[in-house]
Amino acid sequence: MDFLGKLGVIREKMRGNGVGAVVLPSADPHQSPSVSAHWKTVQWLTGFSGSLAICIISADAAALWTDGRYLLQAQRELEGKDVEIYISSDPDAPDYTQWICGHIKDGETAVVDKSLISAAEYNSVSQKLALKNIKIDDYDDYVGEFWKERPPISREPLFELADAYAGVSRKAKAESVRAKMREKQADCYIASSLDAVAWLTNLRGGDNPIYPLFHSYLLFTEENIWLCAELSKVGADIAEKLKSDGFRLCGLNDIFALAAVETVGKRVYLDRYKTSARLCDSLPQKSSVVEGIDLITSIKSKKSEAERENIRLSNIKECVALCRLIKYIKENVGKSAMDEYGIGQKVNEFRAMDPLFMRPANVPIVAVSENAALPHYKPRQGASRAIEPNGFLLFDLCAHYYTGSTDITRTIQIGPLSDEMRRDYTNVLKAHISLATLVFPFGTTGFVIDGIVKSHQWRRRMNYDTGTGHGIGYCLDIHEGPCKIVSEFSPLFPYAMTVPLDVGMLFSNEPGVYKKGRFGVRLENNIMVREDCVNEFGRFLKFETLTYCPFERGAIVKEMLTEEELEWLNAYHRKTYVILSPCLNAEEKAWLKNETAEM
């Protein structure tokens, strides 16, 4: 069934139900930043593959909202389809509630699956629509009956992350949560986020092909910790260990009954941005809700000492693989047939040489020419660009090792570059260095830092719509809250603009420039917040760079760098060789020596 066919059957159902508009989020019941194929309703309907999207269908129109990362991609993937495209941060664009009010009559009804929308979002939407006498109803999986070849949810069993890798036992983590509950004067606590549950239990799964997570909930009461998950995925050995550690196992959907019964008369702590409207509806009237940032999220974002050491090791492992990939590309471009998709698969051969490699952590972004102007372009097998000896190749590759996760981007020279390309590369490098070397007072938010880094582009009357950095999880979501280095609000990371950075938080450092129809440049390392000093002016923090992979010397305009920037670059390359060379053979060492030569 094509796009028009899908629209037709949905609208026929709407007429039969007396529905004026259908709200279709690209979401799962846990408000995950990236969902498995089973939950990609927007992609099934429209073909838009961005990770953040919401689609609204009325009787005579359809519209899609996403963020600035995906504008060019949405225009490309929705070309020829009668779908209006809006960027959520555009002040001139209507939000989707305004759009609904303009496309259905007063007194009509809109529907949404309340398991796929957060309680915070649902409350906001319902209040706005009520002002126009429009009701919004719950309707379970409105389009599911038409999705005949819907990918199933994985049946992959859970596995345990050993304490040596997890760093802290689940019992110790549970006690840290209980301490937070006491601090918040909460009797109960509900965790819906998959990365929160996985982190606390030291369990991982396969419900998402790129993130080792599993559908689950946690309910803390004064006496018990309930883990709600698909019981068929929990092996007997893991079940016994959980029981020994004080956890009670229940089926996934038992969370609704437990929430209704176990919280009566209690103060229940939850994050309304991370808890579905349907789950909140299950709470009894005699309970009171204490709202705030998810407790586990606030703990796990500050990596333990063991996690920090492991993450440093993961970055070394990944940089060894990426150096081998870069060497392979440069030695074969123009000589052997290569394409974008193949490069994204090739890196796994190099990663697999390390026994602690777990799995890829993103659908590979490998792009040449104008494709690199799409920040989240993903090549498909049989439909990707050939690698020719011309210009830049950009790759953004993420990986999970048992010792932690990485997210690294390089833009490499594979052929002649124009002066404009070199200037743009150097400007991006300058922005990257500015974040790597930034010292800032405690209490500074990512919103402030994003502006500092982007000012390098602004001075040249340029900009990029993406954020400068995001939190990185530990064998969890690559995009982790609560903090991000961004200037744009996202309901998936609602506290990113207000929660300050703190010691132990892990971020990406990824400024870029994207020129539509021409090329793109992005340079990304992983950085960790460290203490700097305390003096009469207060407490100051800084970043530690964890990623050591050479930058493209041939793309750098040396004269554009300050003395301090050039000193940083040369020191970075010296350290890159020192760290990586023991892991390489003689030929690879010689190659790396050349790539990291002093400028």
Descriptive account of the structure:
There is one protein chain. This protein is an alpha+beta fold. Helices cover about 35% and strands about 20% of the residues. The strands form 7 sheets. The protein has a 6-stranded mixed beta sheet, with helices on both faces. It has a 6-stranded mixed beta sheet with strand order 12-11-10-8-13-14. The longest helix is centred in the middle third of the chain and has 28 residues, at about 305-330. The chain is globular and about 70 Å long. It starts with a helix and ends with a helix.
List keywords for this structure.
599 residues; alpha+beta; 18 helices; 21% strand
Which secondary structure elements does this structure contain, and how are they paired or packed?
Elements: H1 3-17, E1 21-25, H2 41-46, E2 54-58, E3 62-66, H3 71-77, E4 84-87, H4 96-103, E5 109-112, H5 119-130, E6 135-138, E7 159-160, H6 163-166, H7 170-183, E8 188-191, H8 194-201, E9 203-204, E10 216-220, E11 225-229, H9 236-244, E12 247-250, H10 254-262, E13 267-270, H11 277-281, E14 288-291, H12 295-300, H13 305-332, H14 340-351, E15 357-360, E16 365-368, E17 392-401, E18 404-413, H15 419-436, E19 439-441, H16 446-458, E20 469-471, E21 480-485, E22 506-509, E23 512-515, E24 519-522, E25 525-535, E26 538-545, H17 563-580, H18 586-595
Parallel strand pairs: 1-5, 3-4, 5-6, 8-13, 11-12, 13-14
Antiparallel strand pairs: 1-2, 2-3, 7-9, 8-10, 10-11, 15-17, 16-17, 17-18, 19-26, 20-21, 22-25, 23-24, 25-26
Organism: Cloacibacillus evryensis
Protein name: M24 family metallopeptidase
GO molecular function: hydrolase activity; metal ion binding
